[in-house]
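Morning!

This is the sequence you dropped in the shared folder:
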Amino acid sequence: MKNIFASAITLIALLNSLPLISKTTNDIEEVVVTASLTPILRSRSGNAVSILSRQQLQNHTCVGISDLLRDVPGFSVSRAGVLGSQTQVRVRGAEANHLVVLIDGVEANDPSQNDEFSWATVSATDIERIEIVRGPQSSLRGSDAIAGVVNIITPSAEKTGFGLFLERGSRSTHHSGFNLDFKQPDFDVRLGLGHVESDGGNIARSGNEKDGYQNTTLTFKTGVKINEKLSVSLSARGSNGMNQYDADNDYDGLVEDRDRHSNFDNSTRRLQIDYSPRNGSWRHKLLISRSTNNNSAFVNGVEGNITASSKDRYQYVGSVSFADESSTLSFLAERDQEDWIQRGDDPWGDVNQDRERDTDSLALEYRTDVNDRLTIAASVRSEDNSEFDSSKTFRTETTYRLTDRTRVRGAFGTAIKNPTFTERFGYYTNFIGNPNLVPEKSRSWELGFDTQLSDGNVVLSATIFDSELANEIDGFVYDPTIFAFTSGNTNSKSERKGLELSFISNFWDSFSISSAYTYTHSKDVDSVDEVRRPKNIASVNLSWEATENLFLNTNLQFTGDQTDVYFPPYPEPSQVVTMENHTVLNVNINYIASDRFKIYVNLDNLLDEDYEEVFGYQTLGFGASIGLRYGF
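The structure's back. Tokens below.
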């Protein structure tokens, strides 16, 4: 890590000696709503921030949101098979449930699924942009935000009109949708509907049964400006569908073809009231939100396990700007109510459960632009949880513009992750919960820089990070006194550290290139590499405007070697196995026939790479699709 730090300092000094450039690069003055309690300029954040714009989303035309994150520095994706299969996203080597995912500001993590976000059940339909903040965010977002926050933002109506798209591809994949928009000076409303279904492919290494997927997503967003001081907005998004999967019924450690599927029904909704008296220097925001997740598993057509969860959140955010609006003080008061239900049959005991927990939180954030170069911010949060001791988290950050083209940034903070319902209360009789668990606690720091070269046509970014986790929960502890597995807090600390690099170049009007690289060193409490954390991940995107109407985007993704755990038949012990590195090439072709009509072609895994992201689960080979998009 010392060598990484020294290299970063040397590179900053070298870049500082290059000619001065313009400050007109688009992302310098982008406003983000996720990195603070109030909207701020991206260039004023001390944390590493990434934004996936509408244009980037349209260029990739992915069905699953998780595929869009593979190019983001610090992110690794593990999908157990094909489209719609269980998917985990890890940031900077942390656990999958150390990432908070918001949909239009509503926390959508599923308490009934280990507090992870259900990536497999949410499609990329009707997305305006995705904001990503890496690093500890518990002082603003509460429990779970150890590694960062992803905010999926749906579009608002920009004009009156409608749009639709139709896509058909390999494996009988159909993807379609439409939106209706109505816009007036003080009122807007948008309704969107999307549907995707696919026969999929065989997840198991043996057999030929295909594992399919269906998803229907409805989005609604409206806003009204009552007067110059008062506005009201409402947003809602719901997804329901089905995904098929296989299981290890012969206990050889590998899944086989089985008649199994899960039904899901997830939703988020939020009401927001904004009031700004005194010419906007005082701002008040009231938010009421709710998220729900319902899942049911079927074996040979018979319904078995059922889980359901909900989270109700009530928030007040007040902020005041002073010193010519160069400083802002924000206050948050929040109440969370979480419920978890499990239903099922087990011949060895009663597995039906109804659990709940409440959390009351207060947070304070102060941000100040000391001058046109230096920004300093600090935030602190206190949580009173009905199940755990009160906790306090904090974060400090700063950014300093060395020149008009180069800035350095840094952040330091703490975060927590409360034990999940399953870890505390169990899951069926073969896994017994541990109600005595305590929250995981992390302490993290990062240093980075961003610089522009060649008249703003080149942007370079680098970040080094280090995180230490205490009270880490081991969810696979065998207790000989009860002859079953349970969970427990570890006594030692685990560490994650690494380096993130990104490069964007627009040397020519018709050609651009972007790339990202992440090195992650993630060790558990026994100093062993943690599973499903590749040390090296890289991606390259090449975009070419062949003609005024024809665009070509090539995406190359490299994932290095990573480990996983194989569970052979009893009594053999579990084994750590290595999954080899793989490279995936995707190509997207867009033809703009008119201002309203576009044709696109997707070529996925063009090299037909054979690889696994979860041991024993096959991924898809080459696939192609063609789509039409019309807007009025």
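Headline: The chain has five helices and 35 strands.

More detail when I'm at my desk.
O.
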